[in-house]
Design goal:
Blueprint lengths: L11 H6 L2 H25 L4 H27 L11 H6 L9 H29 L3 H28 L2 H19 L11
Helix pairs in contact: 2-3, 5-6, 5-7
GO biological process, one term: tRNA modification
Organism: Flagellimonas alvinocaridis
Pfam families: MiaE
Length: 193
Amino acid sequence: MLGLKLPTDPRWVNIVEKNIEEILTDHAYCEQKAASTAISLIIGFPEKSELVKEMTALAREEMGHFNMVHDKILKRGWVLGRERKDEYVIELMKFFPKGGSKETHLVHKLLYAALIEARSCERFRLLSEEIADEELSEFYRNLMVSEANHYTMFLKFARKYGNKEEVEQKWQDLLEYEAGLMKDLGKKETMHG
């Protein structure tokens, strides 16, 4: 359903289970960054009313998710740690060339966002099925549905604002590139890395 070309190695869950505090901190910042992405799309493209409306709702939802993850951290007697660099996103953002028209820039941002949400959804599914912690298993099962909806929404907007054939080609090329990235990732207790 997600179109990902390389699934996460299930052994990644074993890495996560050894340091739940780290994954929850990384996850909290991922939710915060997702809200920030939604806000940046509003700021960059205020003339796209449907996008603005959806991104406003998304920013609210993502900050709600941040709050939920933060509550899990506090419930376990921890505090939110410092933000870490997201190697996955840093490398992913190198795919499309810089420059181009405003519309091209929008399509690229939407495709990046769709892929990040798709990978998050896949990781949440894996955690919901494989993690021994029952509370977190249920938590990630519930979040998985939201991430799938976000992924499809971003793709829908990319197809709406760009040439459909070009968008499809860019999407497939980005999926191939991301599969190459994933060969070297999945060895850390981070949501994407």
